[in-house]
């Protein structure tokens, strides 16, 4: 009688362990995918910010180049007003950032990056898997036990 009860409990415990392992693995895979999607979205936002900044910097550089060239040709003192040009662009950028549609444009660019340039957001060696994480954990665990000896 005790043998049958023990065998039944062992089978139930094994099923429970398999179920827990399956749920843990599923949860881990979901967390990995969620973190990867968050990383991709953050990278897309950073890329969008860089592109937007480049547009403003390009306009600043063009105007500054034209102004400096004209001042150099005339050899007068128009350089005294030259600081107004970059300051004007900085003010324009800050106003657009604070009150304009900059964030909407950045979000739109980020969404565009996510849909049309998603290959640029991939991680080296692909998305980490449960097996790769377990392999690294076991290697670290065996290394720690080896160092303790």
Characterize the structure shown.
With 149 residues, the protein is mostly helical. Helices cover 83% and strands 0% of the residues. It starts with a helix and ends with a helix. The longest helix is centred in the N-terminal third of the chain and has 73 residues. Helix 1 packs antiparallel against helix 2 and helix 1 crosses helix 3. It has one domain.
Question: Which structural traits does this protein have?
Answer:
single chain; Plg-R(KT); 0% strand; Plasminogen receptor, C-terminal lysine transmembrane protein; mainly alpha; rod-shaped
State the gist of this model.
The protein has helices at residues 2-74, 84-99, 102-116, 130-148.
Bulk shape: rod-shaped
Q: What is the total tally of β strands? A: 0
* Helix content class: over 70%
Helical region count?
Answer: 4
What Rg do the Cα atoms give? Answer: 30 Å
The total domain count is 1
Low-confidence stretches: none
Share of β-strand residues: under 5%
Distance between the termini: 45 Å
State mean pLDDT (0 to 100 scale): 82
Q: How do the helices and strands follow one another from N- to C-terminus? A: HHHH
The major beta sheet can be summarized as: none
Structural class: mainly alpha
InterPro entries: Plg-R(KT)
GO cellular component, one term: plasma membrane
Protein name: Plasminogen receptor, C-terminal lysine transmembrane protein
């Amino acid at each position: 009688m005790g043998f049958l009860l023990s065998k039944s409990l062992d089978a139930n415990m094994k099923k429970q362990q398999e179920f827990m392992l399956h749920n843990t693995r599923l949860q881990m895979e979901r967390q990995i995918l969620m973190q990867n999607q968050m990383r991709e979205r953050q990278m897309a936002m950073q890329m969008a910010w860089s592109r937007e900044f480049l547009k403003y910097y390009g306009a600043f550089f063009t105007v500054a180049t034209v102004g400096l060239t004209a001042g150099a040709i005339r050899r007068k003192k128009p350089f005294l007003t030259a600081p107004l040009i970059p300051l004007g662009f900085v003010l324009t950028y800050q106003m657009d950032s604070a009150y304009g549609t900059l964030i909407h444009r950045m979000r739109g660019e980020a969404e565009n990056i996510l849909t049309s340039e998603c290959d640029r957001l991939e991680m080296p060696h692909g998305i980490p898997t449960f097996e790769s994480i377990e392999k690294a954990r076991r290697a670290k665990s065996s290394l720690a036990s080896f160092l303790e000896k």
